[in-house]
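PROTEIN–LIGAND DATA SHEET

This sheet pairs a single protein chain with one bound small molecule, S-adenosylmethionine, given as SMILES. Inputs appear in the order they were entered. The predicted three-dimensional arrangement of chain and ligand is reported afterwards as a token string under its own label.
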Amino acid sequence: KEKKLDFLLDVGCGGGQSVNIFAPYFHEVLAIDPSENQIKEARSQNKFAHVTYKAGFAEKLPCDDVSVDVIIAGASVHWFDRQKFYEEADRVLKPGGRLVMFGYWSPKLVPLGLPGDVTRLSEIGSQLIHDAYLFGAKWNPDVKEVYLLIYNKYTKIFNEIKYAKKLRLNHFTEGKAWSLTDVKGLIQSIDSYEPYMKRSDKSKISEQFVRSLKESWGCTGMENSDVKMKVIFNFFVIVADKP
Ligand SMILES: C[S@@+](CC[C@H](N)C(=O)[O-])C[C@H]1O[C@@H](n2cnc3c(N)ncnc32)[C@H](O)[C@@H]1O
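PREDICTION REPORTED AS:
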């Protein structure tokens, strides 16, 4: 926070969620994603003159050698061809430059304003969303590896990093006050559902989750938008420095 760094590269930037957090600490930011739709969405929301969004892949970073201070990959590295990405990251990072990769698993759900034992209801709700997250892995062996990487908090990814100076931070949490409508949207946006969606009706998983949650929280008569809860995400973070 004391001194701005020159150049941040966000790989797999999606709609720019992480860029918005990191951008104030850099003079220049390049954010890439292979999805033209995501780039379009991110550009339309962009609030920073020094941020550029463009289509690009982790395996072929659109940067000069030794030009980047920090690379971030938020909830995205598990989709990359990681060996190619690590080689590219090593090529573009300056000496002392930093590679930061982070992700999160299913959040904890804490009901707000409902009668009953909050701890118990929270345990049940958190288990239900955890099961919804696991669904893709059970169904499709292709995404199972991706799920395992996330489920194990990127342990494998941490071990793959060759830089000697590296560390893991697992204590970051972020709480959001959401309704059941938002949580249903979260389940529908999990990228591992894409393969499932191609062959089946993805809304069923989220519908099933909504039904089970309302039954166990005793609020079947309420609209989804009226069922309020605190949604707590726990982030696991890997920080590695190029020598
Ligand atoms: C869950 S989104 C993460 C969005 C954002 N970084 C964040 O922090 O929330 C994962 C993103 O990874 C992108 N992605 C998948 N494969 C990629 C690749 N090979 N190179 C770069 N990005 C990739 C997807 O298009 C998607 O937008």
